TrEMBL record:
InterPro entries: AB_hydrolase_fold, PAE/NOTUM. One of its GO terms (biological process) is cell wall organization. SUPFAM superfamilies: alpha/beta-Hydrolases. The keyword Transit peptide does not apply. This is Pectin acetylesterase. Keywords: Cell wall, Cell wall biogenesis/degradation, Hydrolase, Secreted, Signal. Its main location: secreted. Hydrolyzes acetyl esters in homogalacturonan regions of pectin. In type I primary cell wall, galacturonic acid residues of pectin can be acetylated at the O-2 and O-3 positions. Decreasing the degree of acetylation of pectin gels in vitro alters their physical properties.
Length: 467
């Protein structure tokens, strides 16, 4: 009886996981070994890297260069902590990663960009590719060379065909979305004058706002990032000529001077900004915001009021964009962070919409100038198409998360899986169109479901075995 129930649940779980993985393609890593001689290296001195899925057919001369996110390091201590993981060393990066959403190679999931040359630039410098400090401390051996990485990657891609681009986009999520803002005009200047070149920033519109105590914590933090990495000379001169460099890390102070067309995809209640700008740990030492930050459904009326105030501040910071068709926006009222590279939020039957338009269609229509798109959602919880982020307790901006569909009252759907006992020695699972990657992912989730049991999965063409 118990074995039958477990078999039923695990069949459903495995097949669902393999179905989701069918939405993504896996792309191998490329290391830029020749960049090391130019000093274009990660924090630990290892070579920079990217993943490149070549275009085909009508997309062979179209290029999408997406920059990975992952926050920043603002001093030697925080940069050292990244030196031993993928955000500071290419030695620790996965040898292949999934491309989905705007990076997908399947027309049903990405109809306007699926056959472009699609590149994901890995993030290992901690400065949104703006740092450039020549000296390397002999003790820490930290390299602050983000701007050199950007230049080396661009040089390599130009040599591989990007110099002939007819259409091109620089994009990114989170810190990568900020990269797309900071390097937008620089990217356009590298490409043919007759090419259509535009920028797409996903969850990169970080605002200079007070936290719940009234302090400008994020401004101080960005100031430290700029100082640590020597970023000032690599930030847009149109901003640094007018303002302190620490302010030029905030898009609101520089986007009005960006001459290249740019599109912003952002949640007005961006979950990273709520966690780290409105209610950072330093402003909430007793953890009153902890549960709220993990799931917006847990927020008290007072906390929701403060979040509504943050939305007002966010929308005020957007006013500098004006109504120009060059500067598009899709600002939804979801509790989310990064929506263009996740298939469920980019383009699927239940993806978030504004005026019955998905993010994928809004971005593509704007890029190809089929229509302008400049839409701002009504306040939370008005949008039933939202995928609201539900974070794990240990989550940070790079942690795992699930999303729940709907408005207030919606919560993440959890499977009530039966617990395994010692009486169950093995279970046979059968799922059509399986794959080894799906098995590995399933193994990870099985361990999370019940950490007291060890599992061995054996794979054949038509059968999975879990022991």
């Amino acid at each position: 009886m118990e074995g039958g129930r477990i078999r039923q649940w695990l069949n459903l779980l495995v097949c669902a996981l393999l179905s989701l993985m069918a939405e993504a393609s896996y792309v191998p890593i490329t290391y830029l070994q020749n960049a090391v001689a130019k000093g274009a290296v990660c924090l630990d001195g290892s070579p920079p890297a990217y993943h490149f899925d070549r275009g085909s057919g009508t997309g062979i001369n179209n290029w999408l260069v997406a920059f990975e996110g992952g926050g920043w390091c603002n001093n030697v201590t925080t940069c050292l902590s990244r030196k031993t993981n993928r955000l500071g060393s290419s030695k620790q990066m996965a040898k292949q990663i999934a491309f989905s959403g705007i990076m997908s190679n399947r027309p049903m999931f990405n109809p306007d960009f699926y056959n472009w040359n699609r590149i994901k630039v890995r993030y290992c410098d901690g400065s949104s590719f703006t740092g450039d400090v020549e000296a390397v401390n002999p003790v820490t051996k930290l390299h602050f060379r983000g701007a050199r990485i950007f230049a080396a990657v661009m040089e390599d891609l130009l040599a591989k065909g990007m110099k002939n681009a007819r259409n091109a986009i620089i994009s990114g999520c989170s810190a990568g979305g900020l990269t797309a803002v900071l390097h937008c005009d620089r990217f356009q200047a590298l490409l043919p004058r007759e090419a259509r070149v535009k920028c797409v920033s996903d969850a990169g519109y970080f605002i200079n706002a007070r936290d719940v105590t009234g302090a400008y914590h994020i401004q101080q933090y960005f100031s430290q990032v700029v100082a640590t990495h020597g970023s000032a000379r690599n930030l847009p001169q149109s901003c640094t000529s007018r303002l302190s460099p620490k302010l030029c890390f905030f898009p609101q102070y520089l986007v009005s001077h960006i001459t290249t067309p740019i599109f912003f995809v952002n949640a007005a209640y961006d979950s990273w900004q709520i966690k780290n700008i409105l209610a950072p740990g330093v402003a909430d030492p007793e953890g009153h915001w902890h549960s709220c930050k993990l799931d917006i459904n847990n927020c008290s009326p007072d906390q929701l009021d403060l979040m509504q105030g943050f939305r007002t501040e966010f929308l005020r910071a957007l006013t500098v964009l004006g109504n120009s068709s060059y500067k598009g926006m899709f600002i939804d009222s979801c509790y989310a962070h990064c929506q263009t590279e996740m298939q469920e939020t980019w383009l699927r039957s239940d993806s978030p919409e504004l005026e019955k338009t998905t993010i994928a269609k809004a971005v593509a229509d704007w890029f190809y100038e089929r229509r302008t798109f400049h839409k701002i959602d009504c306040p939370y919880p008005c949008n039933p198409t939202c995928h609201n982020r539900v974070l794990e307790p240990q989550d940070n901006h790079q942690g795992k998360n699930v999303t729940s569909k709907g408005t207030s009252g919606a919560s993440a759907r959890k499977l009530n899986l039966p617990k395994l006992t010692n009486k169950v020695q093995w279970i046979e699972l059968v799922c059509i169109n399986g794959g080894i990657n799906g098995l590995l992912l399933t193994l990870g989730l099985m361990t999370a479901i019940n950490s007291r049991h060890s599992f061995i999965i054996r794979f054949s063409q038509s059968k999975l075995e879990l022991r």
